[in-house]
Design goal:
- It is a single chain.
- With about 220 residues, the chain is α+β, with helices and mostly antiparallel strands.
- Helices cover about 60% and strands about 10% of the residues.
- The N and C termini lie far apart (about 35 Å).
Length: about 220
C-alpha cells in the first residue's frame, strides 16, 4: 500500500488530510507542490483538474478535494490500524457528522475566510487594512459563533463525540486565532471549551510544531 499526498503544509485543506491520515495511523509520502506545479498540464491531468490542493493517490486510485479525501480514507481504513472513529457506523450518528460538515461548509468557512483575507493575507502583502471590512468580517464570524455556542451547550464536540466535523474546523480557526482574533472564540464559554478540546489533540499539536504553523501570520 502506497499513499501519496500532494499539497502544501501551510494549506488548511492539506492540513486536514494530514490530520486524517495520522488519526487513522496511516503511513504516507508527502509531495509538496508549488503554485507553478499545480497549474502544469501533468498535474491538471493526473491530480486535480482545477489546479488545486490537496490530491491523494492510494496505490493507483486518484482522488482530490479535502472532504472527499477524508471520507474515502475513513471509509476504507477506519478501524484497521487505530481505534479512532471519525464517522460512526451508526446511521443516525453518521448523519449528525454529515450535518455539521454541511454547517461548516455553508456557514462557518465563508465568514472566516473573509476575516482571514483581511487580518492575514492583506496584512502579509503589506497593504493597509480597511477597518470597515475588518469589522464587518468580525461581525459575520460573531453571528456564526453565537449559534455555535448554543449548539455546543453541554457538549465537548459538535456531535457529542470527536469526529471529522470537528477536524474540518481546526486549521482555519487556528490561523484566525494565531492572527490575534482569539477573543472571538474565547469569550464564548461553549465555543472556547470546544476549541480547547479539538486544538489540544496530540496530532494537531504535532502538526503545528512539525510545520511551524505558529509562524504563519
Amino acid at each position: 500500500m502506497t499513499i501519496k499526498l500532494y499539497g502544501h503544509p501551510a494549506s488548511s485543506f492539506t492540513l486536514v488530510s494530514f490530520f486524517i491520515l495520522k488519526e487513522l495511523g496511516l503511513s504516507y509520502e508527502f509531495i509538496q507542490t508549488t503554485t507553478e506545479q499545480i497549474k502544469s498540464p501533468e498535474y491538471l491531468a493526473n491530480n486535480h483538474p482545477f489546479g488545486k490542493i490537496p490530491s491523494l493517490n492510494d496505490d493507483g486510485f486518484q482522488i482530490y478535494e479535502a472532504r472527499a479525501i477524508a471520507r474515502y480514507l475513513i471509509n476504507k481504513y477506519q478501524g484497521t490500524i487505530t481505534s479512532t472513529v471519525l464517522i460512526p457506523s451508526d446511521v443516525q450518528k453518521a448523519a449528525l457528522v454529515e450535518q455539521f460538515i454541511s454547517v461548516e461548509t455553508s456557514y462557518y468557512i465563508e465568514p472566516l475566510i473573509k476575516l482571514l483575507t483581511q487580518v492575514m493575507v492583506i496584512n502579509r502583502q503589506g497593504k493597509e487594512l480597511d477597518p470597515k471590512l475588518v469589522n464587518e468580517a468580525r461581525e459575520e464570524v460573531e453571528k456564526v459563533l453565537n449559534v455555535y455556542d448554543k449548539l455546543l451547550e453541554g457538549k465537548d464536540y459538535l456531535t457529542g463525540e470527536f469526529s471529522l466535523a470537528d477536524i474540518l474546523h481546526i486549521p482555519l480557526t487556528f490561523y484566525a486565532i494565531n492572527a490575534g482574533e482569539g477573543d472571538l472564540w474565547n469569550k464564548r464559554s461553549n465555543v472556547s471549551r470546544w476549541w480547547k478540546n479539538i486544538s489540544e489533540r496530540e496530532i494537531w499539536k504535532n502538526l503545528v510544531t512539525e510545520h511551524k504553523l505558529e509562524n504563519i501570520k
